[in-house]
Amino acid sequence: TITGNFANVIHGLNANHLTDQVIQRSKRMILDTLGVGLLGTNTEVCHKVTQYSKIYSSDISSTIWGHLGFRLPPLYAAFVNGVAVHSMDFDDTWHPATHPSGAVLPAVIALSEAFPQKKKISGLDLLLAFNVGIEVQGRLLRFSSEARNIPKRY
Protein backbone atom coordinates (compact mmCIF):
# COMPACT_ATOMS: atom_id res chain seq x y z
CA THR A 1 0.00 0.00 0.00
CA ILE A 2 1.03 3.62 -0.30
CA THR A 3 0.98 3.99 3.47
CA GLY A 4 3.07 0.84 3.99
CA ASN A 5 5.62 1.96 1.41
CA PHE A 6 5.76 5.39 2.99
CA ALA A 7 6.33 3.90 6.45
CA ASN A 8 9.03 1.54 5.15
CA VAL A 9 10.97 4.35 3.46
CA ILE A 10 10.84 6.57 6.53
CA HIS A 11 11.69 3.73 8.91
CA GLY A 12 14.65 2.71 6.77
CA LEU A 13 16.35 6.11 6.77
CA ASN A 14 19.57 6.45 8.75
CA ALA A 15 22.50 8.82 9.05
CA ASN A 16 24.29 7.05 6.17
CA HIS A 17 21.63 8.46 3.84
CA LEU A 18 22.71 12.03 4.64
CA THR A 19 25.05 13.15 1.88
CA ASP A 20 27.44 16.04 2.41
CA GLN A 21 25.17 18.21 0.29
CA VAL A 22 22.10 17.29 2.37
CA ILE A 23 23.99 18.00 5.59
CA GLN A 24 25.15 21.41 4.36
CA ARG A 25 21.68 22.39 3.11
CA SER A 26 20.10 21.15 6.31
CA LYS A 27 22.47 23.21 8.42
CA ARG A 28 21.63 26.28 6.34
CA MET A 29 17.89 25.61 6.70
CA ILE A 30 18.27 25.13 10.46
CA LEU A 31 20.31 28.30 10.88
CA ASP A 32 17.80 30.27 8.81
CA THR A 33 14.87 28.85 10.80
CA LEU A 34 16.49 29.65 14.13
CA GLY A 35 17.18 33.21 12.98
CA VAL A 36 13.64 33.77 11.77
CA GLY A 37 12.32 32.12 14.95
CA LEU A 38 14.34 34.40 17.20
CA LEU A 39 13.09 37.42 15.28
CA GLY A 40 9.54 36.08 15.58
CA THR A 41 9.71 35.89 19.38
CA ASN A 42 9.02 39.64 19.37
CA THR A 43 5.74 39.41 17.47
CA GLU A 44 2.34 39.95 19.06
CA VAL A 45 1.09 36.50 18.10
CA CYS A 46 4.13 34.86 19.67
CA HIS A 47 3.59 36.84 22.88
CA LYS A 48 -0.03 35.64 22.95
CA VAL A 49 0.76 31.95 22.50
CA THR A 50 3.59 32.23 25.03
CA GLN A 51 1.20 33.72 27.62
CA TYR A 52 -1.43 31.09 26.81
CA SER A 53 1.06 28.24 27.13
CA LYS A 54 2.32 29.34 30.57
CA ILE A 55 -0.57 27.43 32.16
CA TYR A 56 1.07 24.14 31.14
CA SER A 57 3.83 22.45 33.06
CA SER A 58 5.52 19.09 33.17
CA ASP A 59 8.49 17.32 34.70
CA ILE A 60 9.91 17.24 31.17
CA SER A 61 10.47 20.61 29.55
CA SER A 62 12.01 22.25 26.52
CA THR A 63 13.37 25.71 25.79
CA ILE A 64 11.32 28.60 24.52
CA TRP A 65 13.55 30.44 22.09
CA GLY A 66 14.50 33.97 23.12
CA HIS A 67 13.31 33.50 26.72
CA LEU A 68 16.10 32.53 29.09
CA GLY A 69 14.89 30.31 31.90
CA PHE A 70 11.39 29.85 30.47
CA ARG A 71 10.59 26.28 29.56
CA LEU A 72 7.43 24.41 28.63
CA PRO A 73 6.42 20.79 28.06
CA PRO A 74 7.87 19.71 24.69
CA LEU A 75 4.51 19.86 22.89
CA TYR A 76 3.94 23.48 23.89
CA ALA A 77 7.56 24.48 23.38
CA ALA A 78 7.34 23.16 19.82
CA PHE A 79 4.06 25.04 19.35
CA VAL A 80 5.37 28.38 20.68
CA ASN A 81 8.67 28.10 18.78
CA GLY A 82 6.84 27.09 15.60
CA VAL A 83 4.57 30.13 15.89
CA ALA A 84 7.66 32.30 16.38
CA VAL A 85 9.23 30.89 13.21
CA HIS A 86 6.17 31.37 11.05
CA SER A 87 4.91 34.64 12.54
CA MET A 88 7.15 36.72 10.31
CA ASP A 89 6.36 34.53 7.26
CA PHE A 90 10.02 34.58 6.22
CA ASP A 91 10.56 30.88 6.84
CA ASP A 92 11.47 28.62 3.95
CA THR A 93 8.83 27.47 1.47
CA TRP A 94 8.22 24.81 -1.12
CA HIS A 95 5.96 24.80 -4.11
CA PRO A 96 3.11 24.17 -3.71
CA ALA A 97 3.05 26.39 -0.66
CA THR A 98 4.22 24.88 2.60
CA HIS A 99 6.79 25.89 5.20
CA PRO A 100 8.76 22.73 6.05
CA SER A 101 11.34 23.89 8.59
CA GLY A 102 8.92 25.96 10.70
CA ALA A 103 6.93 22.85 11.50
CA VAL A 104 9.76 20.34 11.75
CA LEU A 105 12.65 22.07 13.54
CA PRO A 106 10.78 23.28 16.66
CA ALA A 107 9.37 19.78 17.17
CA VAL A 108 12.74 18.06 16.66
CA ILE A 109 14.54 20.43 19.04
CA ALA A 110 11.81 20.23 21.71
CA LEU A 111 11.85 16.43 21.58
CA SER A 112 15.65 16.27 21.62
CA GLU A 113 15.69 18.34 24.81
CA ALA A 114 13.17 15.98 26.41
CA PHE A 115 15.54 13.00 26.28
CA PRO A 116 17.17 12.07 29.59
CA GLN A 117 20.73 13.35 29.94
CA LYS A 118 22.24 9.88 29.46
CA LYS A 119 20.29 9.37 26.21
CA LYS A 120 20.96 12.72 24.55
CA ILE A 121 21.07 12.57 20.78
CA SER A 122 24.02 13.64 18.66
CA GLY A 123 24.05 16.49 16.17
CA LEU A 124 23.98 13.92 13.37
CA ASP A 125 20.89 12.30 14.93
CA LEU A 126 19.25 15.73 15.06
CA LEU A 127 20.07 16.31 11.38
CA LEU A 128 18.62 12.92 10.52
CA ALA A 129 15.41 13.61 12.49
CA PHE A 130 15.12 17.01 10.82
CA ASN A 131 15.51 15.46 7.36
CA VAL A 132 13.07 12.67 8.12
CA GLY A 133 10.54 15.32 9.17
CA ILE A 134 11.16 17.28 5.97
CA GLU A 135 10.82 14.07 3.94
CA VAL A 136 7.54 13.18 5.66
CA GLN A 137 6.16 16.63 5.01
CA GLY A 138 7.26 16.56 1.37
CA ARG A 139 5.72 13.16 0.75
CA LEU A 140 2.46 14.11 2.46
CA LEU A 141 2.39 17.22 0.30
CA ARG A 142 2.84 15.11 -2.84
CA PHE A 143 0.06 12.74 -1.73
CA SER A 144 -2.36 15.62 -1.12
CA SER A 145 -4.75 16.39 -3.92
CA GLU A 146 -5.64 19.69 -2.22
CA ALA A 147 -2.02 20.84 -2.17
CA ARG A 148 -1.80 20.58 -5.95
CA ASN A 149 -4.48 23.25 -6.31
CA ILE A 150 -3.00 25.81 -3.90
CA PRO A 151 -1.41 28.03 -6.60
CA LYS A 152 -4.71 28.17 -8.52
CA ARG A 153 -6.58 29.39 -5.43
CA TYR A 154 -4.42 32.49 -4.95
TrEMBL record:
Where exactly are the transmembrane stretches of this chain? none
Indicate the segments forming the MmgE/PrpD N-terminal domain, all copies.
Answer: 5-148
Under the heading SUPFAM superfamilies, the entry gives: 2-methylcitrate dehydratase PrpD (SSF103378)
Q: What is this protein called?
A: IRG1 decarboxylase
Species, as recorded: Eolophus roseicapilla (Galah cockatoo)
- Which InterPro entries does the entry mention? MmgE/PrpD_sf (IPR036148), MmgE/PrpD_sf_1 (IPR042183), MmgE_PrpD (IPR005656), MmgE_PrpD_N (IPR045336)
Q: Give the GO molecular function terms.
A: aconitate decarboxylase activity
The UniProt entry's GO biological process terms, in alphabetical order, are:
defense response
Cellular compartments per GO CC: mitochondrion
The family assignment reads:
Belongs to the PrpD family.
What PANTHER family does the database record attribute to this sequence? Answer: 2-METHYLCITRATE DEHYDRATASE-RELATED (PTHR16943), CIS-ACONITATE DECARBOXYLASE (PTHR16943:SF11)
Q: Which domain of life is it from?
A: Eukaryota
Gene transcribed to yield this protein? Acod1_1
